[in-house]
Amino acid sequence: MAPNALDRGPGRAPDAEARAWIGQHDGAFGPWIAGSLRPGADATAICSPASGAELARLADASPADLADARAAAATAQPLWAALPGVERARKLYDWAAEIAARETCLTQLLALETGRPVRACRRGLSAGLDALRQAAGSLLAGAADRPGHVPLGVVAPGPSFGLSLGRIAPALAAGNAVILAPGPADGKLAMLCLAEAAGTAGLPAGLLAVLSGAAGALSDLAQPPVATLRGPCLHLVLEDADLDAAADGIAGMLGDPPPGTAGHWLLVQESVAERVHARLAGRMARLIIGDPLDPATDLGPLSGPALRDRLTAALAETRGVTIQPLPRLPDRGAFMAPALITGLAPAMPEMETGLPGPVLLSMTFRPPAEAIRLANAIPPAPATSLWSETLSTALDLATTLEAGTVCVNGTDLDPAPDPPELWQRPAGLAPARAVARPVAAAAVPSAALTAARRAQSGWAGRSTTERAAILIHAATRLAESAEAAAARLASAAGAAATASAAWAETPGRATLTRHRPLGVIAVLCPEICRQAAPMLTMASILGPVLAAGNGALLYPGAGANAEAEALIAALEAAGMPKGLVGIVSGPRAALACALAARVDLDALWCFGAGDLPEDLPARAAATGKALWLSEDGASETWTGPGGTSDLFRIAAGRRQTLRLSWGA
After folding, report:
1. Is the pLDDT of residue 329 over 50?
2. How many other C-beta atoms lie within 10 A of the C-beta of residue 664?
3. 199, 209 in Cβ contact below 8 A?
4. What is the crossing angle of helices 561-573 and 464-478, to 10°?
5. More confident residue, 131 or 159
6. Strand 208-210 with 177-180, pairing
């Protein structure tokens, strides 16, 4: 009988290459260390979330494996960093070619293990390859071979979907060795295949290690002094948007969330909320849920039954209105129909904790300013899609949102690759480790922090040129009594005033990379500040911090308060808002712990960290702030030509990627 409907028949991309690669290793894997795959004890099964079938067995890294990986990386890193940039670029290009040759195998491995649709896996890998080639190209341009700067050393960039090449490649280009600890959602088998490709391409043994299950043991490795954004993917729809395009794009992202995001938030203008919700429900009902290897699949399985049960319980308990179309679900596997929850308010439990998975949490707003207040009341979102047909409104909102990536009228929300400069440091400013010492937190002068927070918003709202002019005016006031400090302030002002945002253009899209201030930064000055040139040291730090639009809490240390007060007085006399920079005092270690615990502080920089407790990174991570621990450095670090202003300028800002789409 002839068919009487045009229903799509089942289809499936082959997985032969992934299965063959697993078979080459007899289905058993351990950590990748020093250029080879090690057998591991106590291997556990890696199962497909779509079928529950076992794919392979993988052993977590043991303490001995971790020690060997650190030793191999410490041996390979200085040799790699000593190579000319052109030679490192050639190796990275060879690695990119080897990855491209394995592209089919890698996408199949990602789809099998993570449950992401194969289309999304292919797109993510392609973006990672672009980042790798871009990092190699930056080496040819000399971006990672800057005089006076050295690699961080052995680093552990957090992996994410897309094999994290947007972080790994710049770290390697800058001369570092990399140790990875992939999690369940990162594609452990694909990460091992990626490392094997690096060995085949000729990257030095030990330069790249993959240690499953070792994430907690790598927290002491060097990291750039910037915060990692974690939170929901935010979607903001205005009343003048193309509602059909917005609904189509947002619903499509439920099965392909941007890296680093957890769940989805929708902010929709009240006047069009019902129409947007209706369109979203209709589009969600048409999503194809099924085998991630099927090229037509829009939404694959969840990571496991436990997450599905958690989300199902949350939908049953919500105080909002649940809209959950029920498309056909596969008979087995951790599949779940997408859901839209409307009628929510900011204080509801769903908005407090978030719901990972294909669940869209919706709130309404009236004027666009209210949407900005709602969006910026949470920690900065890694990615935001913004929908409006009025370009001036869209740009005004996009530049006001605190988000890592903002895409106007589109869903290209992958983060931009790191610049290689982020993975280097001035030669005299080495990373430091805190010591095992229990410390009770001290009280932080709340008045100083409140004053800095209140003044910072207005300071950040001034133009870069205006802020630079105030710093230069302050420098002229200091010129006679502190000539070197005045020169450092003027240098920071000039660097900020002449810096320009990067603009890249492709057919139908433009990408703008800009820097936003962090907010309020607490700075614990180094011991050397009290020994020689204390005002120069403080000016070296405060100049870039203030030029970027931040406020600051300054701990000058014993004996340096008079210089700190003179510097702040010169800045305020030049036009800096009163209270923007405050002085704090107290026992250094206890003060650091108290500052790390403050949720209303955005970053903590500790120079001379040898007396600080080893749990300080955990305290800072719990409140989501950027933490920078560094040794004092030699006096030349602070008093030499140029100082550390480049690194401070990068660390004092948050990179934001703004993407604009156009076309009929």
Report:
1. yes
2. 3
3. no
4. 120
5. 131
6. parallel
- What pLDDT digit, counting tens, does each position of 171-198 carry? 999 999 999 988 777 889 999 999 999 9
The tens digit of pLDDT for each residue in 108-139 reads: 999 999 999 999 999 999 989 999 999 999 99
| Three-point CA angle 497, 501, 505, nearest 5° | 155
DSSP class of residue 423? G
Average pLDDT, the chain: 86
Span between the terminal Cα atoms of the chain, in Å: 42
How many CB atoms neighbour CB 155 within 10 A?
Answer: 25
The DSSP code sequence of 140-191 is: HTTTT--TTEEE--EE-PPP-TTTTHHHHHHHHHTT-EEEE---TTS-HHHH
Structure tokens at 423: 């993975």
For residue 291, give the nearest of 520, 534, 115 by alpha carbon.
Answer: 115
pLDDT at 540 over 90: no
Of 593, 595, 575, residue with least CA distance to 584: 595
HSE-up (13 A, CA, CB side) for residue 87: 10
The backbone torsions φ and ψ at residue 200, rounded to the nearest 5 degrees and listed phi first, read -65, -35
193: which DSSP letter? H
> Encoding tokens for residue 326?
């029920």
- φ, ψ for residue 79 (rounded to 5)? -70, -40
Strands 603-607 and 626-630, sheet pairing: parallel
Task: Identify whether the C-beta of residue 283 lies closer than 8 Å to the C-beta of residue 247.
Answer: yes
Q: What is the DSSP secondary-structure string of 488-507?
A: HHHHHHHHHHH---EEEEET
Asked if 49 contacts 333 with a C-beta cutoff of 8 angstroms, the reply is yes
Distance CA 226, CA 223 (A): 8
Instruction: Note the helical H segments in 210-336.
Output: 243-253, 273-285, 305-317
CB atoms within 10 A of CB 453: 17
Rounded-to-integer distance, Cα 199 and Cα 38, Å: 14
What is the Cα–Cα distance from 244 to 389, expressed in whole angstroms?
12
Query: Which residue, 95, 125, 107, is CA-closest to 17?
Result: 107
pTM score: 0.89
In a 3-state reduction of DSSP, which class is residue 549?
coil
**Closest to 161 measured CA to CA, from 413, 440, 481, 422:** 413
CB atoms inside a 10 Å sphere around CB 141: 11
* Torsion from C-alpha of 62, 67, 69, 73, nearest 10 degrees: 160
Q: CA–CA separation, 659 vs 539, rounded Å?
A: 35
Largest CA distance in the chain: 97
Residue 565 CA to residue 562 CA, distance in Å, equals 5
Nearest to 264 by CA among 339, 324, 315: 339
Q: Which amino acid is at 228?
A: T
CA atoms within 13 A on the CB side of 189: 31
Phi, psi angle pair for 626, to nearest 5°: -75, 135
CA gap 492, 544 in Å, rounded: 5
- CB 260 within 8 Å of CB 160: yes
CA distance 582 to 523: 10
Q: How far apart are CA 591 and CA 270, in angstroms?
A: 45
Are 601 and 595 within 8 A, CB to CB? yes
Cα–Cα dist 574/581, whole Å: 14
Sequence-separated (6 or more) residues with CB below 8 Å from residue 464: 496, 497, 499, 547, 549
HSE, CB side, 13 Å, CA atoms: give it for residue 451: 15
CB 255 within 8 A of CB 357: no
Check if the beta carbon of residue 381 is closer than 8 Å to that of residue 232.
Answer: yes
Structure tokens at 504: 């890249």
Phi-psi region of 654 (alpha: psi -120 to 50; beta: other; left: phi over 0): beta
Rounded to whole angstroms, the Cα distance separating 281 from 300 reads 18
